[in-house]
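Good morning N.,

You mentioned wanting to compare the apo and holo forms, so I went ahead and generated the holo version with 4'-deoxy-4'-aminopyridoxal-5'-phosphate. This is what I fed in:
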Amino acid sequence: MTRCYNFCAGPAALPEEVLQQAQRDLCDWQGKGLSVMEMSHRSAEFVGIAEQAEADLRELLAVPDDYACLFLQGGASSQFSAVPLNLLGSASKADYVNTGQWSKKAIAEAKRYCDVSVVASSETTNFTTIPDFENWELRSDAAYLHYTPNETIGGLEFHWVPDVDVPLAADMSSTILSRPFDVSKFGVIYAGAQKNIGPAGLTIILVRKELLGKAHPLTPAMLNYQTQADGDSMYNTPPTFAWYLAGLVFKWLKERGGLNAMAEVNQRKAKALYNAIDTSHFYANPVELQSRSWMNIPFTLANSDLDKLFLSEAEERGLLNLKGHRSVGGMRASVYNAVSEQAVATLIDFMHDFEKRNA
Ligand code: PMP
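and this is what came out, ligand included:
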Protein backbone atom coordinates (compact mmCIF):
# COMPACT_ATOMS: atom_id res chain seq x y z
CA MET A 1 0.00 0.00 0.00
CA THR A 2 1.29 3.46 -0.88
CA ARG A 3 -0.24 6.35 0.97
CA CYS A 4 0.05 9.71 -0.72
CA TYR A 5 0.63 13.04 0.98
CA ASN A 6 -2.80 14.61 1.24
CA PHE A 7 -3.08 18.40 1.48
CA CYS A 8 -6.88 18.49 1.25
CA ALA A 9 -8.69 21.27 3.15
CA GLY A 10 -11.34 18.78 4.26
CA PRO A 11 -12.17 15.99 4.47
CA ALA A 12 -8.49 16.01 5.29
CA ALA A 13 -5.67 13.61 6.01
CA LEU A 14 -6.14 11.36 9.03
CA PRO A 15 -3.25 9.86 10.99
CA GLU A 16 -2.23 6.53 9.43
CA GLU A 17 -2.01 4.90 12.88
CA VAL A 18 -5.65 5.87 13.49
CA LEU A 19 -6.77 4.36 10.19
CA GLN A 20 -4.87 1.17 10.96
CA GLN A 21 -6.49 0.93 14.40
CA ALA A 22 -9.90 1.47 12.81
CA GLN A 23 -9.07 -1.24 10.28
CA ARG A 24 -8.21 -3.68 13.07
CA ASP A 25 -11.44 -2.80 14.88
CA LEU A 26 -13.61 -2.64 11.79
CA CYS A 27 -15.31 -6.04 11.89
CA ASP A 28 -14.74 -6.92 15.50
CA TRP A 29 -14.32 -4.19 18.11
CA GLN A 30 -12.25 -5.47 21.04
CA GLY A 31 -13.41 -9.04 20.67
CA LYS A 32 -17.08 -8.14 21.04
CA GLY A 33 -17.90 -9.72 17.69
CA LEU A 34 -19.33 -6.64 16.04
CA SER A 35 -18.24 -3.37 14.47
CA VAL A 36 -18.60 0.00 16.16
CA MET A 37 -20.86 0.83 13.21
CA GLU A 38 -23.24 -1.92 14.28
CA MET A 39 -23.50 -1.01 17.96
CA SER A 40 -26.47 0.61 19.61
CA HIS A 41 -25.53 4.12 20.61
CA ARG A 42 -27.13 3.30 23.97
CA SER A 43 -25.00 0.18 24.52
CA ALA A 44 -22.49 0.15 27.35
CA GLU A 45 -19.72 -0.35 24.77
CA PHE A 46 -20.57 2.70 22.68
CA VAL A 47 -21.35 4.89 25.69
CA GLY A 48 -17.87 3.96 26.94
CA ILE A 49 -16.30 4.94 23.61
CA ALA A 50 -18.23 8.21 23.59
CA GLU A 51 -17.38 9.14 27.17
CA GLN A 52 -13.70 8.36 26.70
CA ALA A 53 -13.58 10.51 23.56
CA GLU A 54 -15.17 13.41 25.41
CA ALA A 55 -12.81 13.00 28.37
CA ASP A 56 -9.78 12.98 26.06
CA LEU A 57 -10.99 16.04 24.17
CA ARG A 58 -11.58 17.87 27.43
CA GLU A 59 -8.08 16.96 28.58
CA LEU A 60 -6.44 18.02 25.30
CA LEU A 61 -8.16 21.41 25.27
CA ALA A 62 -8.29 21.81 29.06
CA VAL A 63 -12.03 22.44 28.76
CA PRO A 64 -13.37 23.93 32.03
CA ASP A 65 -16.12 21.97 33.82
CA ASP A 66 -18.67 24.69 33.23
CA TYR A 67 -18.63 23.95 29.49
CA ALA A 68 -20.82 21.39 27.75
CA CYS A 69 -19.15 19.39 25.02
CA LEU A 70 -21.48 18.26 22.24
CA PHE A 71 -20.87 15.71 19.48
CA LEU A 72 -23.49 16.49 16.82
CA GLN A 73 -24.27 16.16 13.14
CA GLY A 74 -24.97 18.86 10.59
CA GLY A 75 -21.48 20.23 10.02
CA ALA A 76 -20.19 23.64 10.98
CA SER A 77 -22.75 25.07 8.56
CA SER A 78 -25.64 24.01 10.81
CA GLN A 79 -23.98 26.01 13.59
CA PHE A 80 -24.34 29.17 11.50
CA SER A 81 -28.05 28.89 12.48
CA ALA A 82 -27.60 27.21 15.85
CA VAL A 83 -25.50 30.06 17.25
CA PRO A 84 -28.12 32.81 16.80
CA LEU A 85 -30.99 30.48 17.69
CA ASN A 86 -29.34 29.52 20.98
CA LEU A 87 -27.60 32.71 22.01
CA LEU A 88 -29.93 35.56 21.12
CA GLY A 89 -32.33 35.01 24.02
CA SER A 90 -34.42 38.15 24.32
CA ALA A 91 -31.86 40.21 22.39
CA SER A 92 -32.32 41.06 18.75
CA LYS A 93 -28.77 42.01 17.78
CA ALA A 94 -25.57 40.14 17.07
CA ASP A 95 -22.16 41.39 15.95
CA TYR A 96 -20.06 39.64 13.31
CA VAL A 97 -16.55 40.05 11.95
CA ASN A 98 -16.09 39.42 8.24
CA THR A 99 -12.69 38.02 7.35
CA GLY A 100 -13.60 35.80 4.42
CA GLN A 101 -15.88 33.28 2.77
CA TRP A 102 -16.78 31.36 5.94
CA SER A 103 -17.50 34.53 7.90
CA LYS A 104 -19.80 35.59 5.08
CA LYS A 105 -21.76 32.35 5.22
CA ALA A 106 -22.19 32.68 8.99
CA ILE A 107 -23.35 36.29 8.53
CA ALA A 108 -25.85 35.42 5.79
CA GLU A 109 -27.43 32.73 7.95
CA ALA A 110 -27.56 34.91 11.10
CA LYS A 111 -29.40 37.60 9.14
CA ARG A 112 -32.42 35.30 9.02
CA TYR A 113 -32.73 35.59 12.78
CA CYS A 114 -31.55 38.96 13.95
CA ASP A 115 -30.16 42.39 13.32
CA VAL A 116 -26.60 41.62 12.27
CA SER A 117 -23.94 44.28 12.33
CA VAL A 118 -20.65 43.58 10.58
CA VAL A 119 -18.47 45.38 13.09
CA ALA A 120 -15.25 44.87 11.16
CA SER A 121 -14.40 43.58 7.71
CA SER A 122 -11.29 43.01 5.65
CA GLU A 123 -13.14 42.75 2.37
CA THR A 124 -11.38 45.88 1.06
CA THR A 125 -8.01 44.09 1.27
CA ASN A 126 -9.54 41.02 -0.36
CA PHE A 127 -9.35 39.28 3.02
CA THR A 128 -5.60 39.41 3.33
CA THR A 129 -5.62 41.28 6.64
CA ILE A 130 -7.35 41.14 10.02
CA PRO A 131 -9.18 44.39 10.76
CA ASP A 132 -7.49 46.48 13.44
CA PHE A 133 -9.29 45.73 16.72
CA GLU A 134 -9.24 49.40 17.74
CA ASN A 135 -11.65 50.18 14.92
CA TRP A 136 -14.24 47.48 15.58
CA GLU A 137 -17.64 49.06 16.07
CA LEU A 138 -18.88 46.75 18.82
CA ARG A 139 -22.41 47.12 20.19
CA SER A 140 -22.88 46.68 23.92
CA ASP A 141 -26.42 45.33 23.40
CA ALA A 142 -25.35 42.60 20.97
CA ALA A 143 -26.10 39.10 22.28
CA TYR A 144 -22.69 37.88 21.12
CA LEU A 145 -19.76 38.53 18.79
CA HIS A 146 -19.05 35.92 16.10
CA TYR A 147 -15.80 35.50 14.25
CA THR A 148 -13.86 32.93 12.27
CA PRO A 149 -10.44 32.43 13.87
CA ASN A 150 -9.11 30.71 10.76
CA GLU A 151 -10.46 31.30 7.27
CA THR A 152 -9.84 28.00 5.52
CA ILE A 153 -10.09 29.40 1.99
CA GLY A 154 -8.12 32.63 2.36
CA GLY A 155 -5.54 31.23 4.78
CA LEU A 156 -6.11 34.17 7.13
CA GLU A 157 -5.82 33.48 10.84
CA PHE A 158 -6.24 35.43 14.07
CA HIS A 159 -3.22 34.83 16.27
CA TRP A 160 -5.03 36.60 19.12
CA VAL A 161 -8.46 36.41 20.74
CA PRO A 162 -10.72 39.48 20.67
CA ASP A 163 -11.29 40.76 24.18
CA VAL A 164 -14.96 41.75 24.27
CA ASP A 165 -17.70 42.15 26.88
CA VAL A 166 -20.28 39.94 25.17
CA PRO A 167 -20.03 36.14 24.70
CA LEU A 168 -17.59 35.23 21.94
CA ALA A 169 -18.74 32.68 19.33
CA ALA A 170 -16.02 31.16 17.17
CA ASP A 171 -16.01 28.92 14.11
CA MET A 172 -12.84 26.97 14.81
CA SER A 173 -13.41 24.35 12.11
CA SER A 174 -9.94 24.59 10.60
CA THR A 175 -7.82 25.54 13.59
CA ILE A 176 -9.12 23.60 16.60
CA LEU A 177 -6.54 21.17 18.07
CA SER A 178 -3.69 22.76 16.12
CA ARG A 179 -2.33 24.32 19.34
CA PRO A 180 -3.51 25.09 22.89
CA PHE A 181 -5.86 28.02 23.52
CA ASP A 182 -7.91 29.30 26.42
CA VAL A 183 -11.43 27.89 26.07
CA SER A 184 -12.72 30.09 28.92
CA LYS A 185 -12.46 33.17 26.70
CA PHE A 186 -15.26 31.83 24.51
CA GLY A 187 -19.01 31.43 24.93
CA VAL A 188 -19.37 28.96 22.06
CA ILE A 189 -16.78 27.19 19.93
CA TYR A 190 -17.81 24.96 17.07
CA ALA A 191 -15.94 22.92 14.49
CA GLY A 192 -16.73 20.50 11.70
CA ALA A 193 -14.64 17.41 12.35
CA GLN A 194 -13.28 16.73 8.89
CA LYS A 195 -10.04 18.70 9.28
CA ASN A 196 -8.28 18.25 12.61
CA ILE A 197 -10.75 16.06 14.50
CA GLY A 198 -11.79 13.07 12.43
CA PRO A 199 -14.04 12.14 9.53
CA ALA A 200 -16.86 14.24 8.11
CA GLY A 201 -20.27 13.87 9.70
CA LEU A 202 -19.37 15.00 13.20
CA THR A 203 -19.50 18.54 14.56
CA ILE A 204 -18.09 19.44 17.94
CA ILE A 205 -19.50 22.26 20.04
CA LEU A 206 -18.13 23.59 23.31
CA VAL A 207 -20.59 25.91 25.03
CA ARG A 208 -20.45 27.66 28.38
CA LYS A 209 -23.29 26.18 30.42
CA GLU A 210 -24.60 29.55 31.58
CA LEU A 211 -25.52 30.25 27.95
CA LEU A 212 -27.82 27.22 27.76
CA GLY A 213 -31.58 27.41 28.14
CA LYS A 214 -32.12 30.60 26.13
CA ALA A 215 -32.92 29.05 22.76
CA HIS A 216 -35.63 30.59 20.62
CA PRO A 217 -38.87 28.55 20.97
CA LEU A 218 -38.75 27.64 17.29
CA THR A 219 -35.24 26.18 17.54
CA PRO A 220 -35.28 22.62 16.18
CA ALA A 221 -34.53 20.17 18.98
CA MET A 222 -31.55 18.93 16.96
CA LEU A 223 -29.98 22.40 17.07
CA ASN A 224 -30.89 23.15 20.68
CA TYR A 225 -27.74 23.11 22.81
CA GLN A 226 -29.70 22.57 26.02
CA THR A 227 -31.60 19.60 24.58
CA GLN A 228 -28.40 18.09 23.24
CA ALA A 229 -26.47 18.71 26.46
CA ASP A 230 -29.27 17.17 28.55
CA GLY A 231 -29.25 14.11 26.29
CA ASP A 232 -25.44 13.72 26.21
CA SER A 233 -25.56 14.43 22.44
CA MET A 234 -27.85 11.42 22.02
CA TYR A 235 -31.20 13.14 21.53
CA ASN A 236 -31.23 11.08 18.35
CA THR A 237 -28.74 8.60 16.91
CA PRO A 238 -25.39 10.37 16.92
CA PRO A 239 -22.72 9.87 14.22
CA THR A 240 -21.32 6.90 16.09
CA PHE A 241 -18.47 5.84 13.82
CA ALA A 242 -17.19 9.40 13.38
CA TRP A 243 -17.35 9.91 17.15
CA TYR A 244 -15.35 6.70 17.71
CA LEU A 245 -12.79 7.71 15.10
CA ALA A 246 -12.44 11.18 16.60
CA GLY A 247 -11.74 9.38 19.88
CA LEU A 248 -8.87 7.52 18.21
CA VAL A 249 -7.51 10.84 16.91
CA PHE A 250 -7.65 12.32 20.44
CA LYS A 251 -5.66 9.34 21.76
CA TRP A 252 -3.15 9.78 18.92
CA LEU A 253 -2.74 13.45 19.86
CA LYS A 254 -2.23 12.60 23.53
CA GLU A 255 0.39 9.99 22.66
CA ARG A 256 2.27 12.64 20.70
CA GLY A 257 2.45 15.03 23.61
CA GLY A 258 -0.86 16.86 23.22
CA LEU A 259 -1.41 20.30 21.79
CA ASN A 260 1.85 21.89 22.94
CA ALA A 261 3.72 19.32 20.89
CA MET A 262 1.35 19.76 17.94
CA ALA A 263 1.83 23.53 18.10
CA GLU A 264 5.59 23.15 17.73
CA VAL A 265 5.32 20.83 14.77
CA ASN A 266 2.59 22.91 13.13
CA GLN A 267 4.56 26.10 13.52
CA ARG A 268 7.63 24.49 11.98
CA LYS A 269 5.61 23.16 9.04
CA ALA A 270 3.99 26.52 8.35
CA LYS A 271 7.28 28.39 8.71
CA ALA A 272 9.04 26.07 6.26
CA LEU A 273 6.32 26.41 3.65
CA TYR A 274 5.93 30.20 3.95
CA ASN A 275 9.70 30.49 3.80
CA ALA A 276 9.77 28.50 0.56
CA ILE A 277 7.08 30.79 -0.86
CA ASP A 278 8.60 34.07 0.33
CA THR A 279 12.15 33.30 -0.80
CA SER A 280 11.03 32.54 -4.34
CA HIS A 281 10.03 34.94 -7.12
CA PHE A 282 7.79 32.26 -8.56
CA TYR A 283 5.37 31.60 -5.69
CA ALA A 284 3.41 34.17 -3.69
CA ASN A 285 1.07 34.34 -0.71
CA PRO A 286 -0.83 37.62 -0.28
CA VAL A 287 -1.72 37.44 3.43
CA GLU A 288 -0.15 39.92 5.86
CA LEU A 289 2.71 38.26 7.74
CA GLN A 290 1.21 38.40 11.23
CA SER A 291 -2.11 36.86 10.15
CA ARG A 292 -1.01 33.91 8.08
CA SER A 293 -2.72 30.63 8.80
CA TRP A 294 -0.78 27.74 10.25
CA MET A 295 -3.24 25.28 8.77
CA ASN A 296 -4.23 26.48 5.28
CA ILE A 297 -1.54 27.97 3.11
CA PRO A 298 -2.70 29.35 -0.23
CA PHE A 299 -0.17 30.32 -2.86
CA THR A 300 -0.14 31.36 -6.48
CA LEU A 301 2.29 30.67 -9.29
CA ALA A 302 3.82 33.60 -11.17
CA ASN A 303 2.12 32.30 -14.29
CA SER A 304 -1.32 30.81 -13.71
CA ASP A 305 -1.11 29.04 -17.09
CA LEU A 306 1.19 26.62 -15.27
CA ASP A 307 -1.35 25.75 -12.57
CA LYS A 308 -2.59 22.63 -14.33
CA LEU A 309 0.91 21.34 -14.96
CA PHE A 310 1.88 22.03 -11.33
CA LEU A 311 -1.11 20.07 -10.08
CA SER A 312 -0.64 17.13 -12.42
CA GLU A 313 3.08 16.80 -11.68
CA ALA A 314 2.38 17.12 -7.95
CA GLU A 315 -0.17 14.35 -8.19
CA GLU A 316 2.31 12.12 -10.05
CA ARG A 317 4.60 12.51 -7.05
CA GLY A 318 1.87 11.61 -4.60
CA LEU A 319 1.17 15.19 -3.48
CA LEU A 320 -2.61 15.38 -3.58
CA ASN A 321 -5.32 18.02 -3.36
CA LEU A 322 -3.21 21.14 -3.77
CA LYS A 323 -5.76 22.96 -5.91
CA GLY A 324 -6.95 26.21 -4.31
CA HIS A 325 -10.61 26.74 -3.52
CA ARG A 326 -12.70 27.31 -6.63
CA SER A 327 -13.55 30.84 -5.47
CA VAL A 328 -9.92 32.02 -5.35
CA GLY A 329 -7.95 29.71 -7.65
CA GLY A 330 -4.22 29.08 -7.32
CA MET A 331 -2.97 26.48 -4.88
CA ARG A 332 -3.61 25.71 -1.26
CA ALA A 333 -1.75 23.34 1.01
CA SER A 334 -3.70 22.39 4.11
CA VAL A 335 -1.26 21.14 6.69
CA TYR A 336 -3.40 19.90 9.55
CA ASN A 337 -2.06 17.78 12.41
CA ALA A 338 -2.04 14.56 10.39
CA VAL A 339 0.10 16.10 7.62
CA SER A 340 3.68 15.28 8.57
CA GLU A 341 6.80 17.41 8.38
CA GLN A 342 8.01 14.87 5.82
CA ALA A 343 4.96 15.65 3.67
CA VAL A 344 5.68 19.38 3.83
CA ALA A 345 9.39 18.84 3.06
CA THR A 346 8.45 16.73 0.03
CA LEU A 347 6.09 19.45 -1.19
CA ILE A 348 8.79 22.11 -0.78
CA ASP A 349 11.30 19.97 -2.72
CA PHE A 350 8.77 19.60 -5.50
CA MET A 351 8.04 23.34 -5.53
CA HIS A 352 11.76 24.15 -5.84
CA ASP A 353 12.17 21.63 -8.63
CA PHE A 354 9.09 22.86 -10.50
CA GLU A 355 10.27 26.45 -10.21
CA LYS A 356 13.71 25.56 -11.57
CA ARG A 357 12.21 23.94 -14.61
CA ASN A 358 9.46 26.48 -15.30
CA ALA A 359 10.44 29.91 -14.00
N1 PMP B 1 -16.38 26.97 8.56
C1 PMP B 1 -15.12 26.80 8.13
C2 PMP B 1 -14.05 27.70 8.67
C3 PMP B 1 -14.82 25.79 7.21
O1 PMP B 1 -13.59 25.61 6.78
C4 PMP B 1 -15.87 24.96 6.75
C5 PMP B 1 -15.63 23.81 5.79
N2 PMP B 1 -14.63 23.89 4.93
C6 PMP B 1 -17.16 25.20 7.19
C7 PMP B 1 -17.38 26.21 8.11
C8 PMP B 1 -18.32 24.37 6.73
O2 PMP B 1 -18.22 23.15 7.37
P1 PMP B 1 -19.22 21.96 7.09
O3 PMP B 1 -18.95 21.48 5.71
O4 PMP B 1 -18.85 20.98 8.17
O5 PMP B 1 -20.61 22.49 7.25
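The chain has nine helices and 14 strands.

Happy to go through it together on a call whenever suits you.

Best,
F.
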